[in-house]
Specification:
The complex is a heterodimer of chains A (102) and B (648). Chain A has one domain: Ferrous iron transport protein A (FeoA) (SH3 type barrels), CATH 2.30.30. Helix content of chain A is 20%, strand content 27%. In chain A, strand 2 and strand 3 form a beta hairpin. The N and C termini of chain A lie far apart (44 Å). In chain B, the strands form 2 sheets. Chain B has a 7-stranded mixed beta sheet, sandwiched between helices. In chain B, a hairpin with a 2-residue loop joins strand 8 and strand 9. In chain B, helix 10 runs antiparallel to helix 18. Chain B is elongated, with a radius of gyration of 28 Å. The chains are: A alpha+beta (102), B alpha/beta (648). Chains A and B meet through helix 1, helix 2 and strand 4 of A and helix 3, helix 12 and strand 10 of B.
Chain lengths: 102, 648
């Protein structure tokens, strides 16, 4: 194994242990189209590797995030974070806790 | 999305040369840079023991040739898919399974620098000399962003070069830079890997490099407002797909006519100048007939790959995947699988290769097993021939030609069957493995690079022509021999009541007693319930190598029966043996059975080969062949019975 990868896989994102499968009240999945918010943390709703990947994609605590657009059937949605646009499904957006939604 | 296309083909590249590896996220201009450095001389191979393709090419440098390896696109060295694991492994000097590069080129999109630096931080922790190649600097300037490349280099502690996509002077500068790796600066301290420290490091690097975030791409926002609109986006999507097929079928037609004319001309030359009878027949029927009948599809394949590369390069494929994601989710797949299945309309092979953009192994396998059912271009000639026999050219259904409607119906049926297959295999695989997170970058709309499109088309055409020159040529020659031998002497013919000077009668007698006829009759019990006779059986067996061979084989058989007018001979064929002897062979029910059989059966050596390569073993190709044959036989039986009741 590449030692760099091993070190990265051991990163502690200070994620809360899985809090059941329910979508948290203040998650990115609830952000309305055109809305903006600040990311509080990436929750661990099952797979720690998935949470670390969201972190690597720019969903880091303190980052500004916007919901740019939703697909015709409401899911997935395009978010703007770290100065670029990325599509996430509801299941992934639900792992991202936000505050200050407007 | 990393639907990579690279010119050339083959397996390995010369060893002993200095190796450079390209590392970067998807959409970072990595493959464009690879094509610019290596031209159309890339080799596509495989990483030993895994199902990930490997792209290598030789690039000419001032100091001599070097090997450039294009690693799979990844957002992190914290690998979550097989492709990403390869990147982590190749960058690990202690991993002896694959050669470690001598130096790294990290491609970074200047317009997404903040996110890209997270990956740069990880890569600079690998103990290898590295240069950061900043792409899309021109776009950054256009969108009123700012970046001081020299200051970025000082902040990172490694050389930084700006290479706007395919700018020849910048590529030349990069070549000169690659000539002297020993002079590359190395960071004094590697960047941090701790999450909190990494964020601080990224902020400090961005500040030091005087980075100004580019404005939002207004053009992309305006175009997306239409293309991703709930109503208009869907309208444009279906119009695009419709246009896609219109181009393939209408634009290709004159080119195909030209190829047919060329082979007609060659056939005329053979008839005129080759006086040895058997040699003339061999050249005309086996070589020209077999190869020409298949090479007609080259224009369609070239157009299809050109359009996929264009849509990909513009950025529309990500939008199509975004629009289709919810629908694909119904079948247990994700939006990117749509792109793979769409590619499978051209040929299952690019479809299977395109599944590499799927991070989930479960989705990948389900999509790979479904792709061969999509109506590929090899089925097209078979469908055209069978529909022409089944539906009169002048028949109409409302304002549309009935033949066209039948063809459309076959495409729709193939697509539905493929989706259902993906759903079943996804369910079977889902019990063993959890789902990976779904994420997909939406890059700004960009002008596609001509070089990338040319490389994609070149790659596809070369591999198709290679298939024609090897598998299909060998098969048609072998078939010609099986259909033409054994020969019978005059005494034997006279004893059977055949006039040895009547060429048509001799040909028919020889064909009926050929080795191929024996083979076709031997498998008759399998195909008897479908209404096939030995001649159709020979065609079906021959088409196990490639579906188009069916057309060439039936053409050979018909030509043997009536060399003057094989088309009419084919339509007028009657059953020779068994209870239906004397009745027309191609009844509506037999034709329906054949159409459905070809819809499902995995008759393609090349697809089986690619499945073996991509899944790393024989298990899945054998499963695919088995389930598809079962579907094909059952479907053909049912279709034959239903049509037999409707049109006795």
């Amino acid at each position: 194994m590449n030692p760099v990868s091993v070190a990265l896989a051991q990163r502690d994102l200070a994620v809360r242990p899985g809090s059941g499968q329910s979508v948290p009240e203040n998650s990115l999945a609830r952000l309305r189209r055109g809305g903006a918010a600040t990311i509080v943390r990436v929750l661990n709703l099952g797979d720690p590797a998935a949470s670390r990947r969201l972190f690597d994609l720019g969903f880091v605590p303190g980052a500004h995030v916007e919901c740019v657009r939703r697909a015709p059937l409401g899911d997935p949605a395009i978010y703007r974070v770290a100065d670029y646009e990325i599509a996430l499904r509801r299941a992934q957006a639900a792992c991202i806790e936000i505050e200050g939604a407007r | 999305m990393s639907h990579d296309h690279h010119g050339g083909g083959g397996a390995t590249v010369a060893t002993g040369l200095r190796r450079f590896a390209l590392v970067g996220s998807p959409n970072s201009g990595k493959s464009t840079l690879f094509n610019a450095l290596t031209g159309l001389r890339a080799k596509v191979g495989n990483y030993p023991g895994v199902t990930v393709s490997r792209y290598e090419g030789v690039a000419t440098m001032p100091g001599g040739a070097v090997v450039v390896e294009d690693l799979p696109g990844t957002y992190s060295l914290d690998a979550i898919s097989p492709d990403e694991q390869i990147v982590a492994d190749v960058l690990h000097a202690g991993d002896e399974r694959r050669p470690t590069p001598d130096a790294l080129l990290v491609t970074v999109d200047a317009t997404t620098l903040r996110r890209s630096l997270a990956m740069v931080a990880q890569v600079l922790n690998v103990d290898l000399p590295a240069t950061v190649v900043v792409t899309f600097g021109d776009e950054l300037a256009q969108r009123a962003g700012r970046l001081d490349l020299a200051a970025l280099g000082r902040a990172l502690g490694v050389p930084v070069l700006g290479v706007p996509a395919a700018d020849p002077r910048a590529v030349d500068a990069l070549r000169r830079h690659l000539a002297d790796v020993s002079a590359w600066e190395r960071p004094v301290l590697p960047p941090p890997t701790d999450p909190a420290e990494t964020r601080v490091w990224i902020d400090s690097v961005l500040a030091a490099a005087d980075y100004a975030v580019p404005q939002r791409d207004r053009r992309t926002a305006r175009v997306d407002a239409v293309l991703l609109h709930p109503l208009w986006g869907s309208v444009v999507f279906f119009a695009t797909m419709f246009g896609f097929f219109q181009v393939i079928f209408t634009l290709a037609a004159p080119l195909q006519d030209a190829i047919e004319a060329l082979f007609g001309l060659l056939g005329g030359l053979v008839a005129e100048f080759v006086t040895v009878d058997w040699l003339a027949r061999f050249l005309a029927e086996a070589v020209l007939g077999g190869v020409g009948g298949v090479l007609v599809f080259l224009p369609q394949i070239a157009l299809l790959f050109a359009m996929i590369a264009l849509l990909e390069g513009v950025g529309y494929m990500s939008r199509a995947a975004f629009l289709m994601d919810r629908v694909m989710a119904r079948f247990g797949l994700e939006g990117r699988a749509f792109v793979a299945l769409l590619s499978a309309f051209a040929c299952a092979i690019p479809g299977i290769i395109a599944t590499r953009s799927l991070p989930s192994a479960r989705d990948r396998l389900a999509t790979m097993l479904a792709a061969p059912i999509m109506t590929c271009s090899a089925r097209l000639p078979v469908y055209v021939m069978l529909i022409a026999l089944l539906v009169p050219a002048e028949a109409t259904l409302g304002p549309f030609g009935a033949q066209g409607v039948a063809m459309f119906g076959l495409y729709v049926a193939g697509a539905l069957a493929a989706m259902a297959t993906a759903w079943v295999f996804g369910r079977l695989g889902g019990r063993r493995q959890g789902a990976l997170p779904f994420y997909m970058e939406m890059p700004p709309y960009r002008l596609p690079r001509l070089r990338t499109v040319v490389a994609a088309v070149w790659d596809a055409c070369v591999s198709f022509v290679r298939k024609v020159a090897t598998i299909i040529l060998t098969t048609t020659i072998a078939l010609w021999a099986l259909l033409s031998f054994p020969l019978h002497d005059a005494g034997r013919l006279e004893a059977a009541g055949i006039d040895p000077t009547d060429q048509a009668a001799v040909a028919a007698y020889t064909l009926d007693r050929s080795y191929a006829a024996g083979l076709g009759r031997a498998v008759q019990p399998v195909f008897e319930p479908l209404g096939f006779d030995w001649r159709v059986n020979v065609g079906v067996i021959a088409s196990l190598t490639a579906r188009e061979v069916f057309v060439a084989t039936m053409g050979q058989i018909a030509a043997a029966e009536d060399p003057e007018d094989p088309g009419t001979a084919l339509a007028a064929m009657t059953v020779e043996d068994g209870p239906r002897a004397g009745e027309p062979l191609f009844t509506p029910s037999v034709l329906a059975s054949l159409l459905v059989f070809f819809m499902f059966a995995l008759q393609c050596f090349a697809t089986i080969g690619v499945l073996r390569r991509e899944t790393g073993g024989w298990r899945w190709p054998l499963i695919a062949f088995g389930y598809m044959f079962a579907l094909a036989w059952t479907g053909a039986f049912v279709a034959g019975r239903v049509v037999g009741l409707l049109a006795p």
